Structures are given as structure tokens and as C-alpha cells.
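Example record

Each entry pairs one chain with its bound ligand, adenosine-5'-triphosphate.
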Amino acid sequence: MSGDLTLTSVTKSFGRFTAVDDLYLTIPEGSFFALLGPSGCGKTTTLRMVAGLEEPTAGTITLGEQDITRLKPYKRPVNTVFQSYALFPHLTIAQNVAFGRRRQGHKNVDSEVEKMLELVELQAMAKRRPAQLSGGQQQRVALARALINQPQVLLLDEPLGALDLKLRRQMQIELKRIQTEVGLTFVHVTHDQEEAMTMADTVAVMNGGRIEQLGAPEELYEAPATTFVANFLGQSNLVAGKVVGRDGSVIHLDVEGTAITAGSARARSDEGDVWVGVRPEKVYISEKDEERGDELNCLVGGVVSDVSFVGVSTQYLVRMPWGQELTVFEQNTGNRERFRPGDPVDLLWRPEHTFLLDASQDAA
Ligand code: ATP
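C-alpha cells for the complex follow.
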């Protein structure tokens, strides 16, 4: 049994509350897929339905040709790695990894265990007990223990949530490497947008039991479909504007009396009132009225209101003439903190980095 994992019109209600609302989703075989969203959006419930730990109120779940909607969890070719590693403390690492296979009646599992420990780079730890391992290493044991069962689909429920930031970043790269190496379908649940974007081929952003947008990480980031996605994936500098004309693929806008242009490629809305957005790292901050090339031809003037040093970059808050503050990230390449609060500056960016959204949504 293998193939794409497909959810068709899947709904899960708890009493009168709908946690997952008419979900349609196809996860291609062998892909790294992330379900991303804030707490309570229904991502864990979705994962639990795939695992068989929760029965859908309506809809079907298929893996390849097979309908697995009502299959018992242990009959599904699916394994789950949770945030809590739940390793057996009295067993060695090798015994922990072997445990499930041995219980299924497999006798000669030593070479499989060795292969798995090699995959997660823990060969040297085989004889240790879980308490002698770091959190990240324990999580890798949990991963090896799931992968040794040769599932078709591996479900990961906030597996890195208990790790500190640095370890989490390392494990993200590790997980991606392991997924590429084994070529299985990974479905990863997280509320951390950076984590989802670092690892996944495809990300589904969930909100209120529904999918707001699904796509490659760059696509979601560069061309969000809704204000929710724009804000959930980072700062988006949303400003209210109005479309005033079109010129081929260029859209002309009026933003509080300032003329701004946008490329049509990222326009989710292209007439009347719109939200105009631009990511902070796409904005170039310069001295007021500085001479410049005209390829950066979105231009608004403002006054620096706050400067903070954030390691690789400096974050500027710049107050616009209409009172709103826009955020700008500037890479730190030596000329740290070029501007101070009170300095008049120009903000510039390329029209193709402007994105437009339907103004009927909240900016929140
Ligand atoms: P988190 O990141 O906090 O785990 P989530 O996006 O994974 O959030 P779910 O755990 O899927 O969210 O829960 C979605 C909603 O369904 C929540 O409002 C939750 O309170 C509710 N819910 C989940 N399980 C049950 C249950 N067994 N009974 C009643 N309500 C539930």
C-alpha cells in the first residue's frame, strides 16, 4: 500500500464544535508536507485522523488506492513521532529502536537497528540509556524507532517543540536530510512558520479548521493569498490602498496620496480597495532624496521612529506621513545602524515585491 495521501471532505466535530471543517488535501507520495497554523486551528486533529487515533465525523482518507478512513491505527502503514519521545528508560538506545520490530515477532533486527542508528547518526550511542542522551538525540531515537517499522507515511506532531532554539534549527536540517534519504512521505505539524518553511516542500496554512492557502514555502511568503497568511508568515507591512490604473502587467496604486506600483504576478486583487503589502527585507532604506537608479521605483518618505540591532540585521520602524509604521530589515554588513530615530528617510522597493490582497479582509 503506497501512493498519495488524500483527504476528501474530511470534517471532525466535537459535539457542536467543528475542529476540522470540510478539508480537501492531497499529499504527494514522498513529499515533505507541513501543516502550519496557530494553536487550536485543527492541525493535530487532522494528523490524528490520518493516524487513526480520531475518527472523522465525515469524509474519507485514502492512501494510494486504499480507503483507510476506518482502519485500525496499527493496521495503517503510518507511524507517528510525538513531541514527547516516550522512550523506555530502562532499555538501551538499540533496544528502544528494536522494540516495535521485536514485538511484531521479527527476530534478526540487529542489522535494521544498526542501519536506523546510522541514518540518525547515533551509532556510537547504541548501548547508552535515554537519560544519557540530549533532547535532540532522544528525538532522533524516537525517529529511528518510528522509521524502523517501514511506514509509508511518517506523521510528526510538533516533534521539535521541546528542544531549545539552536537544537531545533539543527534538527530541522537533520529531519529534512533524513526525509530526503528515506524518500517517505513526511507530514509535519507545527505552529512555527520558520520551521515549516525550512523543511517542507509544500505547506498548508490552517486557520479555524480550514486551509487558508497551500503551496511551496516561497509562494506562500512572496504571494500570500490572505491577510491571515501574510501576517502568519512574517511581517507584511499591510497598508490600505486603491487601484487607480493598469499599464500592461503593472498596477498603479494610490496609497494615502502616494503613487505606488505593483507587478500583477502577486496581485490577489486588482481593482478598487486593496491591502498593499511588502516584506520588510525587500525594502531598501536610504537617505532622504538620495540619488539612485530607478529600478527601485516604489518610494515613500518617512521618519525613523525606532532602531533595533537583531544580529544579522537591523530592524527599523519608519513612521509614514499618514501615521502608520512600516518595518524594514537591513542586512548588517559593517555599516551598522546607519540611521537614528528622527532621521528623515526614503523607503524603496521593486514593484514586483508589492503584493495586493482583497480589502474585504481584516488586516489583523
Ligand atoms: P495546538 O497547536 O494547540 O495543538 P492544533 O491546531 O493542533 O492546536 P487541535 O488540537 O487539532 O489544534 O484542536 C482543534 C480544536 O479542537 C481546539 O479548539 C481543541 O480545543 C478542539 N479539540 C481537540 N480535541 C478535542 C476533544 N477531544 N474534545 C473536544 N474538543 C477538542
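The mean pLDDT is 92.
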